[in-house]
Amino acid sequence: MENPYKRKKDPEASKQLILHIAAEIGATAGWHQVTFQAISDQTGLSKGGIIHHFRNKEELLEELVHQSLVELTEWTIEEKRASGNDIAPLAFLRFVIKKSSDLHYRRTMKVILQAALINEHYKKMWEEWFTNHIGGGSVADLDINSLIIILVADGLWYADNLGLYGINNEKKKQIVNKLLNLN
């Protein structure tokens, strides 16, 4: 007879919970605070259960960055469609502004930012993603208007993720309008 008290296992749900909690801890306390014990404390999963999905913290971070870039790709494509604008830098800027108040987006971007700052491998993953989805080849080879738009988007992205300046969405919209008038 089957034990009615035995927990039903859902490996994919457990894996996603681990990733979600790791991202939450990383975004709020810093990646150095992400430990299997901290994840275990917040999920109720055993450390062994966590290790079953991720052999070490590096493997966990790799998957988290990978999933974050997949999400970012989906969000960017969605913004290009919504704005009807094929110009990737402008769609990226609008996307950064639109998503800046979305807590899930901010957590996702903090993970990517922290990973890129602590490890060259993740910096290269970010650069490759950016080049393929926004830069259309080498970012340095873009026309000056596209380059200005990307640098403004990056500045807003960094400011939002680091909690700097407190620029409200109205000011951000004014920035977009100003950039649309570049010659």
Automatic annotation (TrEMBL):
<dbReference type="InterPro" id="IPR036271">
    <property type="entry name" value="Tet_transcr_reg_TetR-rel_C_sf"/>
</dbReference>
<dbReference type="InterPro" id="IPR001647">
    <property type="entry name" value="HTH_TetR"/>
</dbReference>
<dbReference type="InterPro" id="IPR009057">
    <property type="entry name" value="Homeodomain-like_sf"/>
</dbReference>
<feature type="DNA-binding region" description="H-T-H motif">
    <location>
        <begin position="35"/>
        <end position="54"/>
    </location>
</feature>
<dbReference type="Pfam" id="PF17937">
    <property type="entry name" value="TetR_C_28"/>
</dbReference>
<dbReference type="Pfam" id="PF00440">
    <property type="entry name" value="TetR_N"/>
</dbReference>
<feature type="domain" description="HTH tetR-type">
    <location>
        <begin position="12"/>
        <end position="72"/>
    </location>
</feature>
<keyword id="KW-0238">DNA-binding</keyword>
<protein>
    <submittedName>
        <fullName>TetR/AcrR family transcriptional regulator</fullName>
    </submittedName>
</protein>
<dbReference type="InterPro" id="IPR041479">
    <property type="entry name" value="TetR_CgmR_C"/>
</dbReference>
